[in-house]
Design brief:
By secondary structure, this protein is of the alpha/beta class. The chain folds into three domains: 97 residues, Winged helix-like DNA-binding domain superfamily/Winged helix DNA-binding domain (Arc Repressor Mutant, subunit A, Orthogonal Bundle); 117 residues, Rossmann fold, CATH 3.40.50; 39 residues, no CATH class. It is 38% helix and 12% strand. It has eleven helices and eleven strands. The strands form four sheets. The protein has a four-stranded parallel sheet with strand order 6-5-7-8, sandwiched between helices. Helix 1 crosses helix 2. It is globular, with a radius of gyration of 20 Å. The protein starts with a helix and ends in a 9-residue tail after the last helix.
Length: 280
């Protein structure tokens, strides 16, 4: 597992383009669905056998500090500056602007659990407020959680989705891209995103775990025992269908009738009506 984790980390590092940066936490969340593995990411990066070739100098801390580097912090700073990343002292200037964003990424409040699930089904990296572990001593109520998710959206350049008018207003003051969702039904909520010119994918894809947001991978030949361990997996279709597994929570996915039902629901509610959606 440790070797697979390091390979996953280095594969993420290879995708960071010249002149852009990401954070240890962002890579941890991409792989596991949680920033808790940020330290493990840093350890994996420290063992990078090909520094510069695999550009781990483009990973910094979430507070903008350049962080450590196997070839030394000065070398890391020189490499970043040579690529056009502005650094003052040990801090990346215009941190948010320099962040590499591969895809539409969201953070949602507690009132948007179903929307969070659907966005993950559609392949979008979506952090749900209810899944964020906040130290009890730092939380005095919903207002504090609101501050946490607004800060997360700002720090990771995510789009904040909320039903809360006050949270939406305060987030926008911080420069966070935000959509205040006004409807209750999830298909209508997806339509709202389209009305705000947020071009979400409209096809279910086996990319993310709908439960924990981590990436899923295809179950390879020789791994069939993983499938047989789950009592909800149609074992009669092993060898006939493709299956995917979330290595973070262990959930198994396949394109069965539920997948076809989701496609049909999207087609009826969104595909056929998308052109007619009025702008807000």
């Amino acid at each position: 597992m440790a070797k697979n984790f390091q390979e996953a980390v280095l594969n993420q590092v290879k995708q960071i383009p010249e002149g852009r940066i990401t954070t240890y936490g962002a890579i941890a969340r991409e792989i596991t669905g949680s920033v808790r593995a940020a330290r493990a990411v840093a350890q994996a990066v420290a063992k990078n056998p090909y520094p510069i070739i695999i550009p781990c100098h483009r990973i910094v801390r979430s507070n903008g500090d350049v962080g450590g580097y196997s070839l030394g912090v000065e070398k890391k700073t020189r490499l970043l500056r040579a690529e056009g990343v502005e650094i003052k002292g040990r801090k990346v200037v215009n941190f948010e602007k320099a962040l590499f964003k591969k895809e539409l990424r969201f953070v949602t409040d507690r009132m948007l659990g179903k929307l969070s699930t659907w966005l993950r089904i559609l392949g979008h990296d979506t952090i749900y407020a209810g899944d964020i572990n906040i130290e009890k001593e730092s939380v005095e109520g919903d207002e504090d959680e609101d501050k946490v998710i607004a800060a997360l959206a700002e720090h990771e350049a995510r789009i904040l989705l909320t039903r809360d008018k006050n949270l939406a207003a305060s987030a926008r003051k911080r420069g966070v891209q935000c959509v205040q969702i006004k409807t209750d039904e999830v298909m209508e909520q997806l339509k709202e995103l389209l009305r705000h010119n947020i071009n979400i994918n409209l096809e279910p894809v086996p990319v993310r775990c709908s439960e924990c947001n981590a990436r899923i991978r295809k179950v390879e030949e020789g791994e069939e025992d993983i499938l047989r361990e789950k009592n909800y997996v149609p074992t009669s279709m092993i060898g006939e269908w493709e299956f995917w597994i979330c290595e973070h929570c262990g959930r198994i996915y396949w394109e069965g009738s539920h997948w076809r039902n989701m496609r049909e629901k999207l087609k009826q509610n969104l595909f056929l009506k998308r052109k007619a959606l009025p702008k807000e």
